[in-house]
Amino acid sequence: MARILLILASKFIILSILSSSGLIQCSREDDHDFVSILDRKLLGLKEEKLSRFRIYWHDIVSGRNATSIQVVQPPNGSATGFGIISMIDDPLTEGPKLSSKMVGRAQGFYALSSQEEIGLLMSMNFAFTVGKYNGSTITVLGRNTVLSKVREMPVIGGSGLFRFARGYVQARTHTFNLKTGDAIIQYTCYVLHY
Ligand SMILES: *[C@@H]1O[C@H](CO)[C@@H](O)[C@H](O)[C@H]1NC(C)=O
Ligand SMILES: *[C@@H]1O[C@H](CO)[C@@H](O)[C@H](O)[C@H]1NC(C)=O
Ligand SMILES: *[C@@H]1O[C@H](CO)[C@@H](O)[C@H](O)[C@H]1NC(C)=O
């Protein structure tokens, strides 16, 4: 018995030497060499913080300086505009006036995705351009029923100072110009990040 164990043990040692030297390959299901567990301190991650910021989103569809361009027309005159897609590069400002301090841009698209009501799928990055936030982004992806008073959408991630971000935004219409279609929307963002 002891001899068998000894033989098995020496076989195991030889196999380990061969496999660690790369001479034979062990293909075990749970061998995932491309994955490693890191200590979060290595990335300088400390306490998770909760930040709130309130900004104004300007969707300018009219005039020569439009920031929102319809790129897909509805296939058939739907009452809710179902199927329309607009690309946006909308200014984000500190106050409701477009002339107030610019803090970044909302870049992405929205698509009319409801056949029953005016409901958008929003898919956009808030790319900040001020101070320490310059170059950092958060990504908003969600459902925006524009006629509701408050629309909540998830923040699904971020970059730079907002790495590992998660949270939500609440959108409230500040003004909507019926003549031009231009809109100013207040976005209050609640973001957990490091
Ligand atoms: C468009 O932007 C330019 C440059 O900022 C400005 O001079 C012009 O007045 C704007 N035009 C309109 C129609 O807003
Ligand atoms: C548009 O909708 C109408 C009414 O529903 C329908 O009769 C027509 O065939 C549709 N046209 C196209 C191109 O889908
Ligand atoms: C933000 O970063 C860009 C690119 O690094 C730089 O060109 C720009 O001057 C910065 N803006 C501010 C306000 O710091």
TrEMBL record:
What keywords would UniProt list here? Apoplast, Secreted, Signal
Cellular component aspect of the GO annotation: apoplast
Highest taxon in the source lineage: Eukaryota
Q: Name one GO biological process term.
A: phenylpropanoid biosynthetic process
Check the record and name the Gene3D superfamilies matching this protein: Allene oxide cyclase-like
Self-association and partners = Homodimer.
According to its UniProt entry, what is the function of this protein? Dirigent proteins impart stereoselectivity on the phenoxy radical-coupling reaction, yielding optically active lignans from two molecules of coniferyl alcohol in the biosynthesis of lignans, flavonolignans, and alkaloids and thus plays a central role in plant secondary metabolism.
User: What family is this?
Assistant: Belongs to the plant dirigent protein family.
Protein name, UniProt field: Dirigent protein
Q: Which organism is it from?
A: Herrania umbratica
What lineage does the source organism belong to? Eukaryota, Viridiplantae, Streptophyta, Embryophyta, Tracheophyta
This protein's encoding gene: LOC110412033
